[in-house]
Amino acid sequence: MRGGAAGDYRAPLFFAWQLTNRCGCRCLHCCEESGPDRAWPEELTRKECLRIAGDLVACGIPYVAFGGGEPFGAKHVWEVLGVLRRGGVCVKIETTGEAIDAKAAAALARLGVASIQISLDGPSAAAHRALRPGADFDAAVAALRRL
After folding, report:
1. Which among 43, 64, 45, 42 has a CA at the least distance from the CA of 55?
2. Beta bridge partners of 115
3. Average pLDDT over residues 57-84
4. Contact in structure between 91 and 81 (CB atoms under 8 Å)
5. What would the mean pLDDT of 61-82 be, rounded to a whole number?
6. Which residue, among 104, 96, 110, has the nearest Cα to 141 in the 3D structure?
7. Helices 77-86 and 46-59, interaxial angle, to 10°?
C-alpha cells in the first residue's frame, strides 16, 4: 500500500503554495501579512503556475495546500487546481469562503478537493469583523452551507 512509510514516496509529501499574497481582508492575526494592497510585485504568472503544477504532478508530490493571500484571488486558480487533481494530487484550500458561490462549490465537488478550510472567527458577524476587518461573515457561513 502506497503511503505506509516515508520510503514509499520519491518526493516531498507536502507542498504549501501561495498563488498570491493579496486578500480582501486585513486580519489582525495574519501570519502572512496579506491584504488588499499586499500582492507581491513579482507574483508568478499563469504560465509559471501551470508549469509548477505540472512539475508537482510529475514529481509525485501527493499533497498541495493553498493558503493566502486568498487563493481564489488568482485568476488562474481553477486551472492550477485542475492540473493537480487530474494528476492525482490531493488538494487543500484555505480561504475566506467569499468566492465560493453555488457554481464554485459545485466545481470544487467535481474536482474532488479533499479539504476546504474556511476562515471564520467567532459566533457572530461582529466578532468575525473585529478579528478580520474587511471579511464577510455571512458569505463565509453561506460558503460552509454550500459545501
Report:
1. 64
2. 92
3. 95
4. yes
5. 95
6. 96
7. 20
Note the pTM of the prediction, 2 decimals. 0.89
Cell 505506509 sits on residue: 4
16 vs 133: which has the higher pLDDT:
16
| pLDDT score, position 1 | 45
Specify the range with the lowest mean pLDDT, choosing from 2-16, 35-49, 62-76, 111-125. 2-16
Residue in 103, 101, 145 with CA at minimum distance from that of residue 120: 145
Tell me the three cell numbers of residue 12: 516531498
Please give the helix or strand (H or E) that residue 15 lies within, else none: strand 15-17
pLDDT at 110 over 60: yes
Which cell goes with 86?
487530474
- C-alpha cell belonging to residue 14: 507536502
Q: What is the DSSP string of 21-74?
A: SB-S---TT-SS--BTT---TTPPPHHHHHHHHHHHHHHT--EEEE-SS-GGGS
Judged against a pLDDT cut of 80, whether residue 2 lies above it is answered with no
Closest C-alpha among 85, 78, 8 to residue 54: 85
The answer, yes or no, to whether the previous bond of 69 is cis (omega within 30 of 0) is: yes
**Residue 50 corresponds to which amino acid?**
L
